[in-house]
Amino acid sequence: MGRAALDVADIFRAHGPAWRQAQHGHLSLGQLKVMSAIEQCRSAALGGHVLRCDACAQVAIAYNSCRNRHCPKCQARAARRWLEARQADLLPVDYYHVVFTLPAPISAIAYYNKTLIYDLLFEVAAETLRTIAADPKHLGARIGVTLVLHTWGSSLTHHPHVHGIVPGGGLSVDGARWVACRPGFFLPVRVLSRLFRRRFLEELATAHHTGRLQFLGECARLRDARAFAQWLAPLRECEWVVYAKRPFAGPAAVLAYLSRYTHRVAISNQRLLALDERGVTFRWKDYRATGKTRYKAMTLAADEFMRRFLLHVLPSGLHRIRHYGLLANAGRREHLAQARELLHVVPTAAAAQPPAPVASVAPTFVCPHCGAAMIIVETFVRGEPIRAPPTLRAAA
Fold first, then answer.
1. What CA–CA distance (Å, rounded) separates 61 from 49?
2. pLDDT tens string 124-180
């Protein structure tokens, strides 16, 4: 048999207790909760079920998941549920992928002001897209936008940015027609970048003036208004990274992309290579390199790996997927119906069919030996020790 797969939970279980003690008073309650959830995920600590295969009578134990949104093990099912809900929103048009990134100096102060900076990133990116799209010189239409927050770079550094998925067109101002963008081109990124930079810095200056920004450590000097103004000045001159990719190859490609991005965490277990006396080794992508040399291995001390992972714990209640314009929750159904009518979309026969019978739903647990459904024969609660697998007589 091959080596068991390494996951983030193994690192936290092996090195977390000592590191928590060394960092006492420096970790937030949210970070401590994430560590605890990941360490206990799919272990006896959270309880679980004893399963038996209907076909081959194999017995197995399935432990409960923590369902924490930062846990690498718990995102696949959440992503599937979200995607099923989004499939009905797709329109028969090209979709574009846009990215808005904050410069490194703002990333530095964002760590101590996560809610404020991340909210601004969402709101200003959405405002920028909608403003430029509404301009008759560019598109002259009301558009819909879905934005997804990522806070990490490939090496786990703090790198806040939002990925946007945007239909290639929108409703005219009077709502009487669908306005499509030019084939293969959505909006000019240079114009988007300049407006994004100006509006973000205006909002950041307002936040400082009203005392809503915190400055700690090396950034403490920025509490002074004059020092903050001097710090902002270079940011008004440098280029801010905003880019748009080519349109997706159809609605299926949009969903495939969303399934990879909407519920992603800072690092997946698949990128972990080793945990040994040197530390944690993982794969990362060097965007400054080209070709095969972009993909490299990095080794960090276990303490540094955990520190970087926990940089990306989001504030409680902060939504990392948001919809704007035509896709905003308040009027999405009506706007999409109007768009389909203008695009002459005929309702599919599948949409008119009744829901599939319960019997056709895929089983929750599948036997790894024969692929048949497994049934729950026993449930154990959190923290309850596991007995030996039940005999067939006891499970019957």
1. 6
2. 999 999 999 999 999 999 999 999 999 999 999 999 999 999 999 999 999 999 999
The pLDDT tens digits for 277-304 are: 999 999 999 888 877 788 899 999 999 9
**Residues 348 and 193: beta-carbon distance below 8 Å:** no
d(C-alpha 163, C-alpha 161), whole Å: 7
* pLDDT above 50: residue 79: yes
Contacts of 87 (CB under 8 A, 6+ apart): 255
The token duo for 164 is 């946007």
Q: At what angle do helices 189-209 and 225-232 cross, to 10 degrees?
A: 170
Q: 177-186 burial, b if ≥16 CB within 10 A, otherwise e?
A: ebbebeeeeb
For residue 348, CA distances in Å to 67, 88, 110, 127, 148 come to 35, 11, 46, 34, 29
> Over the stretch 351-362, which tens digit does the pLDDT of each residue have?
444 444 434 456
DSSP type of residue 319: -
DSSP state letters, 17-32: HHHHHHTTTTS-HHHH
Start-to-end Cα distance in the chain: 32
| pLDDT (0 to 100) of residue 386 | 46
Mean pLDDT of 233-259: 85
